[in-house]
Write a structure and sequence with these properties.
This protein is of the alpha+beta class. The protein is built from nine helices and nine strands.
Length: about 300
């Protein structure tokens, strides 16, 4: 971090982003968010604070969680140094906004977004900071126009920072959000980036802001188009079954979940991504030619949507 970079500006942006996003969801759902401000105690592994905001039981969103956290610790956890071994054991500071919205209507996809910054101060070396994040869409019933709109929004957010970023981050998302134990994508993808500082601190931060700002225009038009679509027990049953795949990924593969748990983070906030209801079925098979089968055979196969 050789530039003169204002870390407080990152915090200000993230707090504002959380407030803008939750206000927009509240306007659509008319269900208030529970605001849970928390503080890490002095004896805990991490120091810091955050605000977890949860909406549950609404007519549009069955559960919508959006959390802000800003913590520091004496030693980076293994999940943060896997690709930076020279930083192992360094004290660190981390802040970010993470959200997952689980809709009630099975025709509305689940969305995930995260933007974050981590700064480390290894002994004897210059401070290092990097950004990460992205957004991805997980439909239960796929629609080409929804998927194209979401990917186009992601592409547009990255366009001012280099034509090479979207292909890279789109492919990274497809690789990352995969339940490798099932050889199955979690959803239709989006963009994902991590350990990113190659544009310099100011421009890398600007890129992170562009991604965060793109979430609402990427997602809310899809919600508006699908939230009143009629559905029955079949669609609801399939939604709950597919939510099981979401839970599997978050617990088994997600680096953000691992980082939070390994570093002594706040468990309730880390697991805000979990859906309120979910089912598992043993060796379940979908009917050939059905919309449920199309999700697996067409939408969950990585492809260039834009």
């Amino acid at each position: 971090m050789t530039e003169n970079f204002d870390i407080d500006a990152v915090r200000t942006y993230l707090v504002g982003l959380q407030n803008r996003i939750t206000s927009s969801l509240n306007a659509m759902d008319a269900t208030p968010f529970v605001v849970d401000a928390w503080q890490k105690e002095a004896h805990e592994p991490l120091q810091g604070q955050g605000v977890t905001m949860i909406m549950e039981g609404g007519p549009v969103f069955e559960r919508a969680g959006c959390g802000f956290s800003h913590v520091s610790g004496p030693k980076l956890p293994p999940s943060a140094t896997a690709h930076r071994p020279e930083l192992a054991g360094a004290p660190f500071e981390a802040m970010g906004v993470s959200l997952v919205f689980h809709p009630r209507n099975p025709y509305v996809p689940t969305v995930h977004m995260n933007v974050r910054m981590i700064a480390a101060k290894p002994e004897g070396l210059a401070p290092v900071a990097w950004f990460g994040g992205g957004m991805d869409l997980t439909p239960y019933y796929g629609f080409d126009e929804d998927t194209v709109h979401f990917h186009q929004s992601c592409k547009d957010a990255l366009a001012p920072f280099g034509a090479d970023l979207h292909p890279r981050f789109k492919a990274w998302c497809d690789t990352y959000f995969c339940n490798k134990h099932r050889q199955e994508q979690r959803g239709v993808g989006g963009i994902f980036f991590d350990d990113f500082s190659e544009l310099g601190m100011a421009q890398s931060f600007a890129m992170m802001q562009s991604v965060g700002n793109a979430l609402l225009p990427a997602y809310l038009p899809i919600v508006a188009a699908r939230k009143d679509q009629p559905y029955g027990e079949r669609e609801r049953d399939f939604q709950l079954y597919r939510r099981g795949r979401y839970v599997e990924f978050n617990l088994v593969w997600d680096r953000g979940t691992h980082f939070g748990l390994q570093s002594g983070g706040r468990t309730e906030s880390i697991l805000l991504s979990m859906p309120p209801l979910v089912t598992w079925s043993y060796n379940r098979q979908t009917e050939a030619g059905s919309p449920e089968a199309q999700l697996l055979s067409y939408f969950l196969k990585p492809k260039d949507w834009v």
